[in-house]
Design brief:
Elements: H1 6-12, H2 21-28, H3 30-40, E1 45-48, E2 58-62, H4 64-67, H5 69-86, H6 91-112, E3 117-118, E4 125-126, H7 134-155, E5 156-158, H8 161-183, H9 190-214, E6 215-217
Antiparallel strand pairs: 1-2, 3-4, 5-6
Helix pairs in contact: 1-2, 1-7, 2-6, 2-9, 3-9, 5-6, 8-9
């Protein structure tokens, strides 16, 4: 899953309104930022196999640190604790929401990945495989993203004209990114893909910060 991960990020504002949207955007893709850097440096591994699934060409056969169930839980707990220590308001609630946002990544990946999510390092792997039917996978991603976005719009209000326009522009940019991710050229190498993926997720985190600047909670 790609942009669908941002649905829980948007929705998180409805639960803990003091948590910045950019923090939630980083949280839901935290394990993929780490995964991209790990793949680029040979710590985790993938293969580029044209036609591997209907959605993409990525054979994600080795990612025990970032995408195993214990790994995902560890990243979630660590992120939640860091936020609870750092936050000035809603420390406990904010930490729980950030931790849940991180773990939502594994739950949503479970829907779309082929069985490559280890229940423990070296253990059996799971995945419901919606990537083998891209229209269905895309519909699920779109539904999760739009639902979260609508919740975000409901609990925030624009500070001015930019706040009325930017969230919708941002939503369109996310949709374009999803289409480009599916229909674009194959990556040149796992390392190149890993670095580009990490940078992409960080760019979207920055774009989410614009929403923080142009909108406020009700």
């Amino acid at each position: 899953m790609f942009v669908g991960h941002y649905g829980p990020a948007f929705a998180g504002k409805a639960v803990a309104r003091s948590v910045p949207l950019w923090t939630l955007f980083l949280a839901v893709q935290l394990v993929d930022v780490a995964w991209g850097l790990f793949v680029a440096n040979g710590i985790e591994n993938m293969r580029i196999v044209p036609g591997f699934t209907d959605a993409n060409a990525l054979d994600l056969y080795d990612m025990p640190i970032t995408h195993s169930l214990p790994g995902a839980l560890a990243w979630s707990v660590a992120a939640g604790l860091v936020y609870a220590i750092w936050a000035r308001r809603e420390k406990t609630l904010g930490g729980l929401v950030v931790g849940a946002a991180v773990f939502s990544h594994w739950i949503l990946d479970l829907l779309v990945h082929v069985p490559d999510l280890a229940l423990w390092p070296g253990g059996p792997k799971v995945g419901l495989g919606l990537w083998n039917n891209y229209p269905v996978a895309l519909a699920v991603e779109a539904a999760v993203l739009v639902l979260g976005f609508l919740l975000y719009m409901r609990v925030t209000e624009a500070k001015g004209l930019a706040g009325r326009i930017w969230p919708w522009v941002f939503l369109v940019l996310l949709g374009v990114a999803e289409i480009a991710n599916h229909g674009g050229p194959l990556p040149e190498s796992p390392a190149a893909f890993g670095y580009s993926a990490a940078v992409t997720f960080l760019v979207f985190t920055g774009l989410a910060a614009v929403c923080d600047l142009t909108r406020r909670v009700r």
